[in-house]
Amino acid sequence: MSDYKLGLNYALEQDQNDALKTYREQFHIPKDKQGKSWIYMTGNSLGLQPKQTATYVNQELKDWANLGVEGHFEAKNPWLPYHEFLTESMAKVVGAKPIEVIVMNTLTANLHFMMVSFYKPTKTRYKILIESDAFPSDKYAVESQLRHHGFDDKEGVVLWKPRQGEDLLNYEDLEQILKEQGDEIALIMIGGVNYYTGQFFDLKRITNLGHKHGCNVGFDCAHGAGNVALNLHDSGADFAVWCTYKYLNSGPGSLGGCFVHERHAHRKDLNRFTGWWSHNKQTRFRMRDEFDQMPGAEGWQLSNPPILSMAAIRASLDMFNEVGFENLIKKSKKLTGYFEFLIKQLGEDTIKIITPTSPNERGCQLSIQVKNADKTLHNKLTEAGIISDWREPDVIRCAPVPLYNSFEDVYRLVEHLSLTLSKREGTEKE
Ligand SMILES: *Cc1c(COP(=O)(O)O)cnc(C)c1O
């Protein structure tokens, strides 16, 4: 039983009592030409800009202007160890130990670098298991790894599919696949939160299952980082990767994150691609030493990183730290629960939520399937200043983000959806 109520007043009241309400003002919310704020529901695609990001980035621009190369040591936040300023707060956000986390490269690049170490095919065990509706980049990355090792990129991919007529994935089916083909599967690579359905998987359960059958297990947490409690360390996963421009609000194309479980931190037998940034910090600049690998996730770095992007990540992570991840999840569950409550009023024969109903099996996103819908529905919402995401054939994805979306946003979104749908029914009858 929910305590949610209908009507705008309820939404306004919730916003008034919201412990995180001051954070909305700390973001730039885009506006239409009349100056009315958009109802921005696509933080799962590109998070909004925190106002303090400019201050953080400007600090580095200023130090670069005034110090040039000396900024590596003399900047207010020296660039040489700059990535270390992110590690602890990023580790908190994904539920890992600092030694397990590094911010580097971009998401798909990190996925490849992780597969260099954790996809180790043999003649008999070479397949990669992914979810059938994996994000295209993940699918392409996995297929290219198969080809790179001389395997067939169709035959080598094992799909974990929903059952006929269903949208969500079922753990019993995964168990069955592993029972039948487990000894042929080298790697299980799943999107921690599926980008399409919003299903948040039980990472620990999948990892245990995979390990029981001798497979390595990794997750793409692009839709999980900053959105759900990933508890990566406790999951036991071998690796995870994610981006920081979705729920972590660090700007278009910003750097990715990478997790390597502590038990691999000191392994020298794992193959990896290396660069000078994977080399021991103490002797890196002697430039002539034999390669001496750094322990932990840091040892997977290659290059000296882009400080301007890292400054934006730092601005965002400082905010996450201040809020506290538990508080964020608490509001997120309430806000998305309210969204679900309102959507259900529209009647399940026109509109269906394909995202799991249990708050522990989803983040803030709801994927809504609208009967007989096409993209005009989405376009109508966009005209009304409601920014959502359309996925063919008939799904609208909306992600009310607890840091900057309000109960009023959610109320107005559903109000418009309802209005657009009833108008549509009107024209159908004419
Ligand atoms: C957003 C997203 C990507 C995008 O990859 P980039 O390398 O950052 O362009 C890849 N995989 C998943 C699951 C995503 O959600």
From TrEMBL:
This is Kynureninase. The keyword rRNA processing does not apply. GO terms for cellular component: cytoplasm. The modification N6-(pyridoxal phosphate)lysine is found at K246. Pathway: Amino-acid degradation; L-kynurenine degradation; L-alanine and anthranilate from L-kynurenine: step 1/1; Cofactor biosynthesis; NAD(+) biosynthesis; quinolinate from L-kynurenine: step 2/3. It comes from Algibacter pectinivorans. It catalyses: L-kynurenine + H2O = anthranilate + L-alanine + H(+); 3-hydroxy-L-kynurenine + H2O = 3-hydroxyanthranilate + L-alanine + H(+). Gene3D superfamilies: Aspartate Aminotransferase, domain 1, Type I PLP-dependent aspartate aminotransferase-like (Major domain). One of its GO terms (biological process) is quinolinate biosynthetic process. Belongs to the kynureninase family. Pyridoxal 5'-phosphate binds at L107, T108, F135, P136, S137, D138, D220, H223, Y245, W276, N304. The gene is kynU. Homodimer. The keyword Hydrolase applies. SUPFAM superfamilies: PLP-dependent transferases (SSF53383). GO terms for molecular function: kynureninase activity; pyridoxal phosphate binding.
